Amino acid sequence: MNNYSNKIGAGLISSGVLRSIGWLMVVGVIVLSLIQLPATPEAIPGSDKLLHLVSYFLLSYWFFHTYFKHKITIISGFMLLGFCLEILQSLTPYRFLEWLDMLMNATGVLLACVVFWQLKENLIYSLFSGCLKGPTVGP
Fold first, then answer.
1. Using CA atoms, how far apart are residues 49 and 105, in angstroms rounded to an integer?
2. What would the DSSP string read from start to end of 12-54?
3. Are 108 and 75 in contact (CB under 8 A)?
4. How many other CB atoms are there within 10 angstroms of residue 27's CB atom?
5. pLDDT tens-digit profile of 20-44?
6. pTM of the predicted model, to two decimals?
7. CB 101 within 8 A of CB 55
8. What are the residue boundaries of the VanZ-like domain, all occurrences included (predicted)?
9. Which of 11, 33, 41, 100 has fewest C-beta within 10 Å?
10. How far apart are the C-alpha atoms of 95 and 32, rounded to whole Å?
């Protein structure tokens, strides 16, 4: 377990379980990206773009926590996954390539990176650093 995960108490669930959940999420994104889904009208125009952004944000954020030392691999891997899935969709008779989907996938990855590092550096450290040092005595 890395030093960061010790700080935030990630030992409550084994890293193997967390990693397995992450890989199941990746499989879910791949399957949902390539299967034929029933045509449903969008309740909110562009909501599928938001779904792309949120999906890749959640995947990336999850993997930043579980594979903390591999940030470049996570960023490049999920960007490549989003690109490849869009290309593969263009090869199916029921899906098509959308450049904006690709952009939203990449935006989700980069946004997760920014949010993760900001929270890690500021919020999480400040919340848990006092717990790790123990109580202070005196003024």
1. 9
2. GS-HHHHHHHHHHHHHHHHHHHHSPPPP---SSTTHHHHHHHH
3. no
4. 10
5. 999 999 999 999 999 998 877 667 7
6. 0.76
7. no
8. 47-117
9. 41
10. 11
Answer yes or no: are the C-beta atoms of 18 and 66 closer than 8 Å. yes
DSSP code at position 129: H
CA Rg, the chain, in Å?
A: 19
From CA 32, how far away is CA 49, in angstroms rounded?
A: 14
Tens digit of each residue's pLDDT (9 = 90 or more) over 52-109: 999 999 999 999 988 888 999 999 999 999 999 999 999 999 998 999 999 999 999 9
Q: Which run of H or of E encompasses 128? A: helix 125-133
Nearest residue to 86 (alpha-carbon basis) of 57, 56, 115: 56
Q: Give the other-Cβ count within 10 Å of 92's Cβ.
A: 12
- Quote the CA–CA distance of 99 and 111 in Å, as a whole number: 18
